[in-house]
Amino acid sequence: MNRILDGLNVLELGSGSVAASIAGVVLADAGARVIKVEPPDGDRLRVDNPSGFLVWNRGKDSTIADLRTADGQDRLRDLARGADVVIEGFAPGVTDQWDVGADTLRSINPALVHLSITGFGKTGPYAALKSYDSLVAAKAGLWARGSWGHRDGPIMFPVPWASFGAAMQSVAGIIGALLVREKTGRGQALDSTLVAGLDPIDYFVSTIVQLMAKKGEAASGDSRSLTGASRFGVLLATRDGRFIQTSTMLPHQGRALCEVAGIGEVVAKDPRFGGLPSFANPEDAQEWEDLLMEAFRAKDLDHWLPLLQASPDIAFEVAVTSEEGLDHPQIVHNGDVITVDDPRLGEVREIGPVGHFSQTPIVIERSAPELGSATEGFGAHDFPKGGREAPPHPFAGITVVEFGYFYAMPYATAMLAALGARVIKIEDGKGDPHRNSFGPEVASTKTTAGKESVSIDLKSAEGRAIAQSIIAKADVFLTGFRSGVADKMGLGYDELRELNPRLLYVHAAGYGTDGPYANRALYAQAAQSVAGSFGRQVGYWTDPAQSDGFSVLELQAVVMPHLNQLVDGDSNAALTLLAALSLGLYHQQRTGEGQFLGTSMIGGNAWAYSDDFCSYAGKPRTPLCDSEYYGTSALDRLYEAAGDSWVALTVRSDAEFAALCNAMGLEADDRFSTAPKRTEHDDDLVDLLGKAFAEKPAAEWESTLSAARVGCVEVNLLGQPVFTSFDPVLRETGLTVTVEHPVYGEIVRTAPPVSFSETPGRVAPPCVRGQHNRSILSELGYSDGDVTKFEELDVITAPA
């Protein structure tokens, strides 16, 4: 079987690192031999997150090496001699102290690509913070839910978004470095961070808060307050207590939902609703939502489901758990759920591959390894000889043509552009609707960064000819539209494959290329629902028993405020697509062969929830937050500190708990002497720690406990967008940069998601629609006169 990464040797180290595990499994799925280096008592995830360990380590081998000992260090150095890639998930400086850091291993093997994953990088005051998902999210402001939360203070959601994002970005970084190595023969040192892994979740608000600050207005990270006169996502409740997440990004989708609800005629006659899903004021928006709520609450899910399914313009999904998502008809059809036989547990249903490749399919056959099961190291193999100059950026020289709107697919290519690819966005005369979703060229600040835009009428023969000429010279073509749309524009797979046989053709759809849901509209909130976001983020309140007998008013007052989720449906899909796209490019750039790659938003979201998106006999329950979202336990929780401040605490081991008690001056208590006892007396421990934390401000606790190597941070209550936009430490450590926005001037954004020791990423501003019409057509041989004529004929549309 032809597998993309056949012959590639990967070492993965970092006990308890979710990010390293996920990055490693993506490479293992694609054919690399991945040896997981574990301490004598095994990777901490084997106990802390057994389902995650099972899924994130399938197809790998396990070897034991105590890196705190000379023998273990010698073992690792010996393995590194035959490795192509090392993925390291330790805290900054740890492996250097053991003499097995990047510099040491690369001196042994100059062809080695060494990637280190940390929380906030290796320099600056945040580098010393524990790289746990809850802590990074708290410090970055992700738990600050603003004025629309159901209570005061921050809210925790127990999903490893930071690690998942960093993992997928790391895969792309590794592939980029390997492509550079094909040219130069040299490896390099790479760094990725959990805080960069969180950046895709901030879709547009960081731009808004900066524009507000420029106007002298108070910057707020609360996206609900910034979009209060819109209803792009409406959550509905049926009579039997089931929840339906709808997404209405476009007017015809909102009208279709009204027709199904039986309020179409009422809405059509009322001028206040003429622009739905956008309204003149929040009051009109709320009244429209109230009409929908009253209609859906009147009947059970069994009544509504066939009506909704019969209308393909309605983007919706029913709230489910991750395990229930395994049985979604389109998930099953796509092959996004597979069955792997585990020697101990039997059949395990779990997430499928990151992408579906026509010529190099990903086949997953082995479950996670037993501890120490590897009987041999890497076999001898040749490294690339190189001899050519290094490119300026990892993906420099690769041209990607994008045909799609909104966020999921376009942000994946924006991240690839930040790693050096040339991305050309094809738009019509009106442009991507995302450009104006939240103000002129606001939402598109991130999705068009580093790209070129050409504005073409693909309904005209001349426009199709121009687009095909661009794609004929490209390496990749991506479309995010539903099946059939690109074909109607002369951009179907068969037509473009004949034009450019080496083309990697990517269909990054909502539901997939074909199947029972393929022709349905889909957006972020509904996409994440398939993967189980409701069960994972707000599971307590989706139980029908919690809303039994409630009126619509009672639902809105009591239950709905508890169901405000973090919207991750687009960001999860973008990150998974980035990893799949990079794998496809690796195959194409090395072989010159093209192929079809299919991905879906629902599959990408299932990857983000993959530690619970699985089922097997005896599966333990995934920890969920309490009903008020303070945390999953006393030792993974938010606590209020003195002075209206909050801390996030994460303690993972007995040693860390002992250090916590010592640093806080807590006396020994037999109730908490062992992990099982702490679980048994969790409420008592919450009370004890709550009283202690209330005695000092959060900043003081962060300083004291971090110095004792205990995971504790002051919760950022201003929100992630404000943190990204204005935090001085991020600027000083290079985690954020500035660009010149073509409309709004200087804007702060995150740096490229992975840093490279030799071929850095690329920082470039966003583009406006049609900005590069003339330069791109000039490359194709058209004169200025030709372009002017095309503009007169509306074949192309000049930029505004």
UniProtKB/TrEMBL annotation:
<dbReference type="InterPro" id="IPR003673">
    <property type="entry name" value="CoA-Trfase_fam_III"/>
</dbReference>
<dbReference type="Pfam" id="PF02515">
    <property type="entry name" value="CoA_transf_3"/>
</dbReference>
<dbReference type="InterPro" id="IPR023606">
    <property type="entry name" value="CoA-Trfase_III_dom_1_sf"/>
</dbReference>
<dbReference type="InterPro" id="IPR050509">
    <property type="entry name" value="CoA-transferase_III"/>
</dbReference>
<protein>
    <recommendedName>
        <fullName>CoA transferase</fullName>
    </recommendedName>
</protein>
<dbReference type="GO" id="GO:0003824">
    <property type="term" value="F:catalytic activity"/>
</dbReference>
<dbReference type="InterPro" id="IPR044855">
    <property type="entry name" value="CoA-Trfase_III_dom3_sf"/>
</dbReference>
